[in-house]
Amino acid sequence: IMSYHDFEKTPSDDYIQAVIDESKSLGADIVKYAFKANSFQDVARVLCLTNKNREKNLVAILMGDYGKVSRVVAPIFGSMITYTYIGQSFAPGQIEAEKLNELLEFFNIQKGWKLE
């Protein structure tokens, strides 16, 4: 897993695509990227880019209050996994495990779902 984090902002689409492409060219089986979402537009951009590259084994995480929604819906856009916690959160925007499971169930989000 090759990982890239930006705790301040969400980079441009071109920059994120370059991170994905370079990571894959260096032999990454999985590319994980985590960005601070400063708006819902940041969330939408990253999830759309993840969907466009879904065959490349990606993990998309958006941190912060705006990014919380990505913890629930990112699998629909091709993110392989999402992160949660039991006890104490270690990243901004993480949703406690029981609550995340409730949300996934409420929205009927299941492994393998994707946008068509």
TrEMBL record:
Top-level class of the enzyme under EC nomenclature: lyase
Q: Note the superkingdom of the native organism.
A: Bacteria
List the protein's name. 3-dehydroquinate dehydratase
Q: Name one Pfam family in it.
A: DHquinase_I
Identify the keywords attached in UniProt to this record, alphabetized: Lyase, Schiff base
Might you give the EC number(s) for this enzyme?
A: 4.2.1.10
InterPro entries reported in the protein's UniProt record: Aldolase_TIM, DHquinase_I, Type-I_3-dehydroquinase
Lyase recorded as keyword = yes
- GO molecular function terms here? 3-dehydroquinate dehydratase activity
Coiled coil found in the keyword field: no
